[in-house]
Amino acid sequence: MRDARFIPLKPERPQAPTGDSALPLPAPASGPATHEGPALDRLSRPLRDLRISVTDRCNFRCGYCMPRSVYGPGHRFLPHQALLSFEEIERISRIFVSLGVRKLRLTGGEPLMRKQLERLIEPLSALRTPAGEPVDLTLTTNASLLARQAAMLKAAGLNRVTISLDALDDAVFQRMNDAGVEVRQVLEGIEAAQRVGLGPIKVNMVVQRGVNEHQILPMARHFRHTGIELRFIEYMDVGSTNGWQRDQVLPSADVLQRLHEAFELQAMPAASPGETAQRHAYTDGGGTIGLISSVTQAFCGDCNRLRLSTDGRLYTCLFARQGHDLRAVLRAGAGDDEVRGRLLSLWQLREDRYSALRGAQGQAPDGHSGTTEPDLGQSGQRIEMSYIGG
């Protein structure tokens, strides 16, 4: 079996799109930018979730996201002036909440590398929906910097965190993060988050066949009876630099079978529309686990998410190739009504369903998994996860 950590030799260095290559944000429909009921896309999916990348930098070099062979010392990250300011992010978020967004997730890169992040969290935590309800403000992090920031983030108004951890075995974990970070640092971050009340906490484990699949049961045993939900994520073909091959994917069905061999589990209904994880509960009351199966069981049908890059481009799908330039609209002096109308038009034109198309088209004639990619009518490389978050 080939090494699941294989990275092609001399991969092209991914670069953030330039202003010339970004798609313009659609003009608002004629008339005032008002609507009744939820904003729906062409597949009748409501807009509910905005994921905001606050930095393209990360202190890890995980092979499935930011392989060191590509993101080494010579890689050019975005200059500071290209990043959206906290004031611009707050304004965008406020307009999105008026359109139906109910959850804001801060991502990266590693979001805790953005300096003074609490200055952004404070105004975001004060946002209210048209019905007067607070938004669900969350953050995804590798937790290596969380221990010393958890209390400050909670005081600023952050609700909860999702933490990436791919192994408990230190040797395996350090090979995967490729940055010399020990498991201990992440566990200390998790403990700090629990202590200050940043919960409920979720822990995400990306499972790669031949790399960390033997860590499934140790991870499950560790997080049982802790109040933390462990979620197993299929290794996805996001971006173009991680050397993804389908035979590196351990299907969620196989993960669940391994868990069933050690524990009694029962399936749970979805907690809300658009939920990415299929959840199961330990029958002994030990908590829950989740399975995120975007490769083998696409959940495009109720996807309600938009992604905002660090430099202000909107992506309507995790597997997109081009983003819509919102920063240019903001910095050209557009008023809130114009911005709102453009965002509404963008969502109403959306019909992305990459994973579902891949599942339908990406099968070899003999029934085995192929490598065919669905034609989404776009050219160029897919955008990297580190640029728009997961």
SSE string, helices as H and strands as E:
EEHEHEHEHHEHEHEEEEEEHHHH
Number of strands: 13
Overall mean pLDDT score?
86
Compute the number of helices: 11
Q: Biggest sheet: strands side by side, in what order? A: 1-13-12-11-2-3-4-5-6-7-10-9-8
Helix content: 25-40%
The H-level CATH homologous superfamily, spelled out, is: Aldolase class I
Which CATH architecture would you pick?
Alpha-Beta Barrel
What's the Cα radius of gyration? 20 Å
Structural class: alpha/beta
CATH class: Alpha Beta
Number of domains: 1
Give the end-to-end Cα distance, rounded to a whole number of Å. 28 Å
Fraction in beta strands = 5-15%
**So what's the overall shape?**
globular
Largest sheet: 13 strands, mixed
- The residue ranges in which pLDDT falls below 50 over 5 or more consecutive positions are 1-14, 363-379
* CATH overall fold name: TIM Barrel
